[in-house]
Specification:
191 residues; 4 helices
């Protein structure tokens, strides 16, 4: 009976192993918020439709955000964002493609949060800029958690603000990224 219990435990551990040591993680429900403050009013928007893939072995990562998925408190503000500033019909997505510079996979799988820097190409409004972003990675119960906060200047990405409302919009916008990525099995990758 003792041998049967030990054997059952080993089978359960082997079945769990692929998720514990997965190399690729992804989400389609990541969150990005942005916030700007000015003398006249604060602007905040949020989306939970961020698609992201992180390859822990190669340190590569990429994500895409549908611009129209950002939700604002006021409908008029959301319309102006899509039509006047981001030209969402013409530039429907923001993307990032890069790598984690200082990732230590062994330490990541041991647990705890790991501060990292990510560098790569951020494309917004059809303009691509090379950026470096500080962030944190954490493995929690087989899920890879990714957090980052950085600032972006709309002017750097060719986003023009009409002179009449220029004082209403900050020169830099704070962007917060929060991803909860599940392991990707080989079966999922081949679909």
């Amino acid at each position: 009976m003792k041998n049967l219990t030990w054997w059952s435990l080993l089978i359960v551990m082997l079945c769990m192993a692929p998720d514990t040591w997965a190399q690729k993680y992804m989400t389609r429900t990541g969150t990005v918020t942005f916030y700007s403050t000015s003398i006249i009013e604060d602007i905040e928007a949020r989306t939970e439709q961020v698609s992201a893939v992180v390859d822990v072995q190669s340190s590569q990562l990429a994500f895409a955000i549908p611009i129209k998925s950002f939700q604002f408190k006021r409908t008029l503000m959301q319309e102006h964002f899509n039509e006047n500033y981001m030209e969402s019909e013409r530039f429907p997505k923001a993307t990032f493609s890069g790598r984690v510079v200082d990732l230590h996979p062994d330490a990541l799988f041991k647990g705890g949060s790991q501060r990292v820097n990510v560098e790569g190409d951020l494309t917004i409004h059809g303009v691509t800029k090379r950026i470096t972003v500080p962030g944190a990675l954490e493995m929690s119960r087989g899920t890879l958690l990714v957090h980052a906060y950085f600032n972006v200047s709309p002017a750097d990405y060719g986003i023009e603000v009409p002179l009449l409302v220029r004082e209403n919009i900050a020169k830099t916008v704070g962007i917060r990224v929060s991803l909860s990525c599940d392991p990707v099995s080989q079966l999922t990758l081949s679909k």
